[in-house]
Amino acid sequence: VNGTALDVRFGSSNTVSDGGSPPFPEVLSLAKDAGSETLSTLLLNAGSGGAGDYRVGVTAFPNPIPELYPTTYVACREPLAYYGGKEFVVVKQAQTTVAEDGTIERNIPEGCAPLRLLPQCAELNDLPAGSQSSHDLAADVRCYKDVNSIDWSKYSPA
Question: Which residue range or ranges hold the DUF7907 domain (predicted)?
Fold first, then answer.
């Protein structure tokens, strides 16, 4: 993730990747879906900030499970106009709300599956000369050595 130690601790960091050649910054962001108060689409775009919600990071203490925040990500089949209406699985974020009676509403759309996006550890490569990217504010966060090897049955009720 990208940010100061305080950014990481208090959920103000963002998730940046190096893309292209020479490397340039790409950032995860959430774009509100038209006609929805609670649903946003997760995007990876060139740049490191600007318009949009770039507060996509990895949870820190006291959350015991490192995962991408904000939580309640979902996978939804959706036709994409750019590809002639062909359906793809698109990752979205469903904003949790609280009803007037105090009930927590996850707002997961019908036909979508809930996801937990877990960070897998990776080494940060050195940047070649001429890169537009910078690792000056790259922050270490908790991550999993091998997400695929986790036996989730150990952590769920029988």
Answer: 2-121
* Single-letter amino acid code for the residue at 23: P
User: How far apart (Å, rounded) are the C-alpha atoms in residues 68 and 137?
Assistant: 18
* Mean model confidence pLDDT for the chain: 87
Measure the CA–CA gap between 6 and 152, rounded to whole angstroms: 31
For residues 76 and 89, give the distance between their C-alpha atoms in angstroms, rounded to a whole number.
Answer: 5
State the CB neighbour count (10 A cutoff) for residue 127. 14
End-to-end CA distance of the chain: 35
Give residue 62's pLDDT: 84
15-34: per-residue pLDDT in tens?
878 888 888 888 888 999 99
Q: Which residues, in sequence order, are CB contacts of 57 under 8 Å at separation 6+?
A: 1, 3, 7, 8, 11, 12, 13, 14, 15, 68, 69, 141
How far apart are alpha carbons 54 and 25 in whole angstroms? 13
pLDDT at 158: 60
Strand pairing report for 97-98 and 86-94: unpaired
* pLDDT on residue 49: 60
- How many angstroms separate the CA atoms of 54 and 16, rounded? 9
